[in-house]
Design brief:
The structure is a homodimer.
Chain A (H helix, E strand, L loop, with lengths): L25 H15 L6 H8 L13 H13 L11 H18 L3 H6 L6 H12 L8 H32 L3 H7 L4 H7 L3 H8 L9 H18 L7
Helix pairs in contact in A: 1-2, 1-3, 3-6, 4-7, 4-11, 7-11
Chain A binds a DNA duplex through α2.
DNA sequence: GCTAACTGGGTACAGTGTTCGCAATACCGA
DNA sequence: TCGGTATTGCGAACACTGTACCCAGTTAGC
């Protein structure tokens, strides 16, 4: 058992009672990190950079946080705070749809969020609040906790996976300076090679037909379609009503 | 349009025809990277480390590859090669199930794979072959390419998302030196705080009931259950048979 | 055989996260 | 009111990272 040398972030008091009052707060650190990540990507978020934006010394940040991962956790939970105020109407299908859409929108607004929340699950107050709200969808239905978690897990796995692919496509298109259609059409100069090889007839067809109209909101429609299919699938195994 | 200073990996010839024969191959580099990543995690994969394992100079690697991202792409495609030889039986539901399971098993065997394939889509020959195989599931059904992509997208988004969560849980448990049950039960010493706060009654119930028997294969059952629900959902919108 | 292309690899540079030590500060108990 | 002590801010330093640049040695094509 490799004893953690640092106690978990959310257990440690934000600051002591003895010495001088801290100049900033954990929230300041999180907000600065979010601003940088939104504007320049997650890679631009470094301790030195955050400190510079905050106008403080680099290693002063370690008074608020014991490792960089803590900063990322703070950022994640701060963003999850944007979901506070969400109200559900009491119909599981409609509520799960709302949850999925809000999650996606938040993740698209902060393109680094999905990457971060891929791995570890956040324990911050806002994340816990969101978890609690999500669980409340099943209030009154007679489900085991395992079933509730399985349902939520399936849904959020879909949302997470879908958003990650959306963002991947966006970045690929952006970094080649092409629109989605142009990019699909020639796959970054690689397309012709794929087509000409003759090895991938079906994929070739996908490339060639990639110029359907209104492709701008293809992602939206793809998400909505997938979401409905998932809700259909869940419905088949859930009590009929509530 | 930020012109790419480096041509795409798969377009450049692996080596020239003029000078001395290269000592190693791209494949050697990929395999070395995979060995390191499997054994010590993705963070342990550095250019210096790969070079050391290969018994060559660090910067010599840049004869095979123009940036580290290329190495990661090579690693991904090499692993996708493990899926060659997959045979489908011609029933879409059964075939999609096979695809999802194989994808998950591969991603669990190489815990870094899901993280990598989150973002950009791989263009390597093995990845293309797998894409082609996946598309072949819909042979004979009369689907638009958009529908085919939407279906595959929903499925693979679920697999990716689910595997990422599995791996996240595994690592969280491993890094705290606890079993999944113990970890769920006390959330790394944080659980009691959550419970005592009284703010999260539903989540508290989840924590308290987290000690169901046979929890070892909970992930397996969760995956299979979610998978079937997704297939159910797809079935509702697909032509009846093939 | 000569030239041009190519490979191997050392050096160097600008970053990174994080530990350590020290001065300044402000609360707590006496 | 006055130490004593916990706490903050922060510069210096360390061990890393990816990779651009350079040069020597090697081989294929003309």
């Amino acid at each position: 058992m490799p004893a953690n040398d640092h106690p978990p972030l959310w257990l440690r008091p934000a600051h002591g009672t003895r010495g001088p009052k801290p100049t900033h707060s954990r929230r300041d650190v999180a907000v600065a990190g979010i601003r940088i990540a939104d504007a320049e990507g997650l890679d631009a978020v470094s301790m030195r950079r955050i400190a510079a934006d905050l106008g403080t010394g680099t290693t002063s940040l370690y008074r608020y946080v014991s490792k960089k991962d803590d900063v990322l956790e703070l950022m994640t939970d701060e963003v999850m705070g944007e979901l506070r105020g969400t109200v559900l109407i009491g119909n599981w299908r409609s509520d799960l749809r709302t949850i999925a859409r809000l999650l996606r929108q938040t993740a698209l607004r902060h393109p680094w969020l999905a990457t971060l929340s891929s791995g570890r699950s956040n324990q911050g107050p806002n994340s816990l609040w969101w978890m609690e709200l999500s669980l409340s969808v099943f209030d009154g239905m007679d489900l085991s906790t395992d079933d509730m978690l399985a349902n939520l897990g399936t849904l959020s796995a879909f949302v997470l996976g879908h958003v990650l692919r959306e963002l991947g496509d966006q970045e690929a298109a952006r970094r080649s300076g092409l629109t989605h259609e142009q990019w699909m059409k020639q796959q970054g100069v690689y397309g012709p090679t794929i087509v000409n090889s003759g090895l991938y007839p079906r994929f070739t067809r996908v490339i060639n037909e990639a110029e359907t109209p209104h492709a701008a909101d293809r992602q939206n429609r793809g998400f909505e379609a997938g979401l409905e299919r998932i809700l259909d699938g869940l419905a088949a195994h859930l009590p009929t009503r509530r």
